[in-house]
Amino acid sequence: MSYDDGASWRTQDLKAANGTWQAQLHAPARADYVSVRVTAKQLNGGGVTQTVNRAFGLK
Q: Does the pTM of the predicted model rise above 0.85?
């Protein structure tokens, strides 16, 4: 997760629940948007990384 348009990144713990994954965000008070970066790796060395800048806004 990034709260500064990708200038810095924080790891995020995920929890499996009913076939989905959930995360509890701890955004700083000054944050307006959340950017998300997800990496999936395979045992054979393959994988993919996806980044979504400003994935959603915060109120």
A: no
Reported as a single tens digit per residue, the pLDDT across 3-13 is 999 999 999 99
Residue with tokens 């009913």: 18
Q: How far is CA 51 from CA 13, 39, 58, in A?
A: 17, 9, 18
**For the chain, give me the number of helices (H) and strands (E)?**
0, 4
Q: Which two tokens stand for residue 40?
A: 């999936």
Nearest to 14 by CA among 52, 49, 48, 40: 40
CA gap 14, 48 in Å, rounded: 18
Amino acid at the residue 51 = T
